[in-house]
Structures are given as C-alpha cells and as structure tokens.
Amino acid sequence: MGDTQCHREIKTLCGHGNHKENSPFLNSSEAGKGSDYYDRNLALFEEELDIRPKVSSLLGKLVSYTNLTQGAKEHEEAESAEGSKRKVSKSPSMGTLMGVYLPCMQNIFGVILFLRLTWMVGTAGVLQSFLIVLICCCCTMLTAISMSAIATNGVVPAGGSYFMISRSLGPEFGGAVGLCFYLGTTFAGAMYILGAIEILLTYIAPQAAIFHSTGAHDTSSATLNNMRVYGTIFLTFMAVVVFVGVKYVNKFASLFLACVIISILSIYAGAIKSIFDPPAFPICMLGNRTLTRGHFDVCAKTTIVGNMTVATKLWELFCHSSNLTTDNCDKYFLLNNVTEIAGIPGAASGILKDNLWSNYMEKGEILEKADHPSVDVSGLKSNLHLYVFADIATSFTVLVGIFFPSVTGIMAGSNRSGDLKDAQKSIPVGTILAIVTTSLVYFSSVLLFGACIEGVVLRDKYGDAVNKNLVVGTLSWPSPWVIVIGSFFSTCGAGLQSLTGAPRLLQAIAKDNIIPFLWVFGHGKANGEPTWALLLTALIAELGILIASLDMVAPILSMFFLMCYLFVNLACAVQTLLRTPNWRPRFKYYHWALSFLGMSICLALMFISSWYYALVAMLIAGMIYKYIEYQGAEKEWGDGIRGLSLSAARYALLRLEEGPPHTKNWRPQLLVLLKLDEDLHVKYPRLLTFASQLKAGKGLTIIGTVIQGNFLESYGEAQAAEQTIKNMIEIEKVKGFCQVVVATKVREGIAHLIQSCGLGGMKHNTVVLGWPYGWRQSEDARAWKTFIDTVRCTTAAHLALLVPKNVSFYPSNHERYNEGNIDVWWIVHDGGMLMLLPFLLKQHKVWRKCKMRIFTVAQMDDNSIQMKKDLATFLYQLRIEAEVEVVEMQNSDISAYTYERTLMMEQRSQMLRQMRLTKTEREREAQLVKDRHSIIRLESLYSDEEDEGETVPDKIQMTWTKEKCDSEKRNRNTAVENFRELISIKPEWENLNQSNVRRMHTAVKLNEVIVNRSHDARLVLLNMPGPPKNVDGDENYMEFLEVLTEGLERVLLVRGGGREVITIYS
User: Where would you find the membrane-spanning parts of this chain (predicted)?
Assistant: First the structure.
C-alpha cells in the first residue's frame, strides 16, 4: 500500500471523531489491491477475503496508525508543508516527564498559590486549611485514577477529556461535559489574567492605576474598574498572540514553568532561613488592631526631634492636627498604645499554635490580634481606612470555592496524548505523580505559612500591613521580587495556555457535529487554527474579566471543572460496573467504589463552595444534554450509557419473567399486523395511528409484517420493508419496534409472529389485525382464510384481538373530536377489554372530549332495571365515567330478510365451491348476484385488489317486512330465473342450515339495534364472535361479521384473551 494512501486512511480514522465508526479498526476497502492477495494457502477462505482483510494486512495497517494531535503541531506543519510534497509525520516522541508530568505541574500550580494561599491559611487556620487541601486533592486524585483507567482503555485520540468522556458516556454526556470543560478553561483564562493584573497593580506598579479612589472608603470600585480596563487590554493582547501563532506560546511554556518552580523554591528557602534569621517586616498595631503601613512611616504616636516631642504622621491622621492637642482625636487612638511586632517571627518562634485555629470575618471587619492588650472603645468611622480590614465575608465554603482552581489542571497530560510516545503508560504515571507533587507542595506550604508568618499578616490579603508587599514574597529568599515577578509571568503563561486550549476543545466539539448550532466554530484558518472558536473564547473570558474579582471568578470555574471531573468518575464507574467486554484498561489500580467516592466528593464540593452556582452549572449541563438528545446528530460510539441501557433492560426483563403481570399492571402490549403492497408501502397507515392513540397504556408496541418468499432471496426486500415501516412509525409517532418475517406462506409468517414476537416478560398480549376488505369480490379465498386463521391463532394463544373495521375513516393524530360518543356494546364479558379500551383512547387528545356510553343487551327474562343499576355500580367501582343503557331484545320471529340473507350466503358459497368459472363468467355471475340481491353492500372501497378512492354505494334500507320482500321478489323474478338456471341448485328456505339461520337472525337483530342507537357514534366497540369450530363455515362467519357491522362508519371488533384486564380493587 502506498505511503500517501496509508496516511490518508489514517487521517480518516483519527481525525476529529466525526466519522461513523462502522469498523472497529480501519477502513478495509483499500486492503486488497495487491496482485498476490489471494494466497494459495488461503484458498479455502477465498470468499471471505473479498470482504475481510487478511491478518497480516490488518496488522500492517495498525502498526502504521499514528495518533495525530489536535494541538498546534500539525497546524504548524500544515503551514509549512507543500501541497504535493507531504511531510512524513514525525512519530510522537514525548516521554512521561516532558509530556505529562511538567505540563500537569504547570497547569496545577497557578495564581491561587501565590495570591490567596497565605490568606486562606490565616482565615481558616492551619487545620482547616489542611482539610480544604485534602478534600480538593482527594477529589483530583480519585478523578486522575478514573481518568487513567479510561485513557488506558484503547488508543486515546488527541483531544483529551472531551474525547474520553464522549466515547465512554455517549454524545449527550460528552457534549454537556465538553462544553462545561470548555467554559471552565475559558473562565480559568479570565482568572489568570485577573491574577496577573492584581500582581501588576498592587505589587509591581501601583502608580499605573487609571482610576483612583475619590474618598477614603471608595477604594473597591476604583480597583474593580482598573481590573476591567487592564484585563480587557491583557485579554486582547493574549488573544492576538494566540491568533498569530501557537508555536510562540508552546516555546515560552517551559520558561513560564521555570518561573513557577523558582518561585516555589524561593518560598522553601525563605522558610528555612527564617528559622535562624527571620526577615524584618515589622507590623504596626494600635491596641490589637492592625494598621495600614502605606499612610505613615514611623510606628509611634510621637517622636523626639531635637529634644522636642512632636506629633508623628500617625497622630496627624487620627487627630487631624499636628499639635499634640487631643480635642479632635479618635477615642480608640488615645486609649490604646501603638506597638510594633514582627510580621515574620520565623519557624522557630512557635507562632504555629496561634495559627492553628480558624478566624473567619465579616466584610469590613478590622484585622485584630486576639492576645494583644487593647481598650475596647469605638473609634471614628472616618478613620476605618487606616486599619487593615476584610474585603469579603469569609467562611469554610467560600474558601473551598476559591482554593479549588489551584488543584485543577490534571487533564493537561491527557490533552496532549497525541504527542506521547506511550500514552497508555505516561498518562497515569505522569498525572498521578504531578498530583502527588503538587499536593505535597500545598500541604507543606500551609504548614510553613502557619509556622513562619504572623496571623494578622496571613489574613491581610493585599499585604497592606507589610507596606504593600506580596505576603508570600515577605517570606521568600533572596528577595520578595523573585515571587512577584515569577508569579506574574507564570499567571500570564497560564492565561495564554487556557486561551490556546479552550478554542481547540470547542473546535473538537463543533467538528463532532453533535451540537448543530456550534458548527461554525469547527472552521478556522487554512492551517486549521480555530479562529471563530478563539473569538468566542475571548468574548466569554471578557465576561469573567468584567466581574473583575478573582474571588468571584474562582468559584465559577470551580463549578465547571467539578462537573467535568464528576462525569469522568461517572464514566469510569459505569464502565466498570457494566463489565463491558471492551473495558480492558491497562491501568489496573482503579475500582468502581473509588470512582463513586470521587463523584460524591465532586458533587459535595460543588454544593459546599456555592450551591447556587452548582445549580446553574447543572442546569446548563442538563440543557445541553437535552438539546443534544433532541436536536443533535445521531452518533453510535459504543458508549457506556448504551451499555447501561442494555444492562437495565436485561435486568428489567429478567424481573418481569418472574410471573404474569397482576391485573392492575395489565396494559395492552400490541402486535400490529400490517399489510404491505407490491411496492412495500404500508397499505393501511391508520392502523399505526390507532395504535399510537391506544398507547396511553404506555405498553409495548411491535409492528409486524410478513413478506412472502424465501429468506435467502428476500433478505434485501425484508430490510427495505423494515425501513419503510420504521419511517412510518416515526411519522405516526408510535413508540415501538418493528419485526419483518419472510415466510413461504403469509399464514405461516403471521403464526410465527404471534408465537415468537417479544422477549421474556415483554411479550404482546393483544393483536391488532386489519379487516380483509373486498373479501367477497376476491378471486381467491386466501385473503379471508388468512384473516380467520389469524383469529384462531390469537384465540389459541390466549391473546386479545382488536379488528378496526373501516380503518381509513379513523381519525388522524391531528384531528380533534370536540363532541360525540364512544359506544361500547357489551354483549359477552371477556375480561373487561371493552371497558379499558375506550378509557385508554380518551387519554389521547383526539378522543379526549368524547363521552363514553355502555350498552348491554337484556333478554326477555332479564330484569333490565336491576341490570342497569348493577352496571352503573360496577362502572363506579371501576372509576370509569360512562353513560349506561340496557337494550331489550324482543323475542321476535325470524324475518324474511334473515332467510333471504342466509339463502344468498349459502348460494354464493356453494356456487364458488362447485363451479370453476373463467374470469369473464365470474364477472357475469358477480353482475347477476348484484342485480338479484341489491341489498348486498359492495365494499369495493377497501378491495384488496383495487386502489382506494372508489365511491361507496348508498347505505341500504335495513328494516324489511314480509310484504316488501314479496314485492321485491316479484320485481326481480326474471333475474332469479336466469340465476337459478345458471347454478342449477335450488335450496329453498326450509332446506337452509338452521344453525346458520339462527346466527344470521342474531346478527341482523343486533345490527338493527346497534345502528338504531349508535349510527352517529364516533366509534363503536363490539364483542367479536369467535370463528366456527368447523372450517367449512369460515365464509359464512365472514358474512355474519359483515351483517353485524353493516351501516356503521367506524367499528372496533374486540375479542378478549380470556383473562381479566380490569379490576375494581386498588
């Protein structure tokens, strides 16, 4: 195979995941181009080799498979590569140290360590700070273990966490988590920029501030505005850098990491030095309150200048006068002494015991040293700005939210999986080592800060007490500037990394095409740089910068990262518990319990740090999930959620198998038998509409059809039929399954469907069968014989049967009946199906406004008044609202009309049985029958052989008297003579089968009563009489059914399955 061709194929496989993964390996279409493909030694497998590759060629392709990165490398190559001369892609060469360990370290160590960790230790105390660090590090460690398991389960495409989650949990979770991770990374960029500006404006160049506070109390708004202006400038500059070339960002990454490491080492050096030589950073205290050092130079009330006691700057600030008069002095200032204490007593001073316990404060509360002597009187409010005070209210939960971003960044290794020599080995080792290292640094930092620095200095967020020095900087050696400069560059670097990573992640999601409205962000520059995605990222980051407070932005990104980590743990737990055959991670030190613990910690941390942000983050993820579920492209990624559905379905089916359902749980599980025409189109789609309207029972629906033929030859036809039915199911919004059976005889196929459809406890209990329209005109008897055989099969299988007659007149799902009745003619009790069906239909919007009427038939010896009362009571106990009527059937003589119908029926069946007529003669016979017996209603509208759309003849007159019959006979005498000559069989009324006459009498009388009462009903439900035991009477049975339902527009014949389906008990 040519090199170019091979590369193209690899590109197809491991691009951005938007291909449909039909083959578990690579596209095998190009495999067999070689001339020696059919090896003599493999002659036995010649047929197979057409469609399946040889093992040698498959392995050759797998070896040449390289993991192209989604990062900057191929973009740079694309820029420099010539169109025809393709560069041979370098094989990934990064090891664990450079590829995973250091990038993770750089991403984890960030702005919080330098700007907020000391403040956290001072506020929460050493013990609670240990707890905060422990919880956060446990969370990331457990997530890293889960991530390692997922990352080592097969080849990880470049794209990191998004690819891992989406391929493990499916497109819905993948998209939701991918976007959460994207938003988290974007807000992280904003947080790093805010951190960099805080360092710049507070510690490096305070004079660069554009806005200045107008009064003593109005410092915060000026600070926030400065952050916003400088933040926007920084963000624009960084976005331009990323846009111009990612290679510059990647080149400077190691420089930024060096800054972080040097800064951390200087902290350790300073802590060790403080044991024997603590640095001089004195703090000025007034009583037990901490004073801001920036407003004065001498920490005393008075000073001696040339034998004279003069007021210091401090006196002037509190007394508003340079004279030593006390008239306008602050009361607190007069009664308390000014003292100076060491800001950094050093590790040997024993300050640790004072810093062990928490000291949470409200907003505006002054920093006080608890054990310092003080006279407690209230001072002037105008002098508040001279003290160091808390700028936000603090609590354990607030600190958790602010600290958590300093442990995020564990995905950095998996994000560059494409650059690693052996990703499956490097990712777990590098990530876990990075987390262990950073955790140790955090724990030791908490301990060192608590042991070396005075409590009020620790609680001083911006270093006001130590002359506007960075608090961490005061401890560091050789100079505070080491940390100030180091942290400034490292935060700038981290911001650049976030702005580089986030657009790529968004581009990967957009290219997967699971969220349709994001497709525009999949495009970029010619070299693949995600330009549009970068623009969106910059806009979202700008929102973070407009918030302008590091302490407000940190909890937002905590939420998004916690959501992401929660789903990584969920993915691992689901895959482990399902024991999917494909779940074979190389990393063995994982367990589902650890993943669940990690998941629980993530969830707890979300609500601990900020319950309202947690709800918003979950709402966003939920909305994305639902959007992808309804709108997104169909993806089959072999994900765990599909596996979970399979396991849940299996478990539920096994539970259902334990016994037949209780009457209270009975619901119609439908098997709808559809008929297809020659073009494989559904002949009566309204059967599906009716099934969907019945589905308020929320049961199972199986749509079955039979194709006549041989399975080996008709397989393609069966597939086409299945697709047609599935399309129809979608149009009619039926929630169900489709089953196509190929059989030599239709009757056999239907029997197979009735016997074998369903699985375990999820089997159908009701068959919906179409009426064989035009059976009278049909040239062969198979149409109605199939119908009667199906009725017999359902009876034998103890299944209920529904036969909707005139189904084309049934309403569509878009129609609404605003009035009308559903009439139930309850003649025989067969388990209550007749009661339940109208109730279920009324749940659907089409039938909702219809009223239900129940008619029952009383014989002469029945007490009809008592029957009506009993029926009303029964319905009341069934909780079904319906009007009740009892119809009395008079014992009348059998009418001439009945004899006439029976005679006509028997003549016709004998005639067809005994004579083999040619087609033309049969047409003539049909015309004669039509002339003689004008009372036959030709149902040509629904003829199996004819197209729909023929006109329906007018309805016939139903009530016949003896006189009318006699006059009719006289009128048609000539036709009768011709007819009788033709068939030369003369059965007279007295020779008729009396059983048939009795049945016809019942059918005629019942039909008369039903038409009289229910001619205007929207739907008539009626007990369906069973087929005769003697097969010879099949055709007569069809005639009885026709007579019974004549003159009714919509009839549903119902036959129960022999078990109770409705109960009066709760």
Answer: 94-115, 127-152, 173-194, 229-248, 255-276, 386-411, 432-458, 478-496, 532-550, 556-577, 589-606
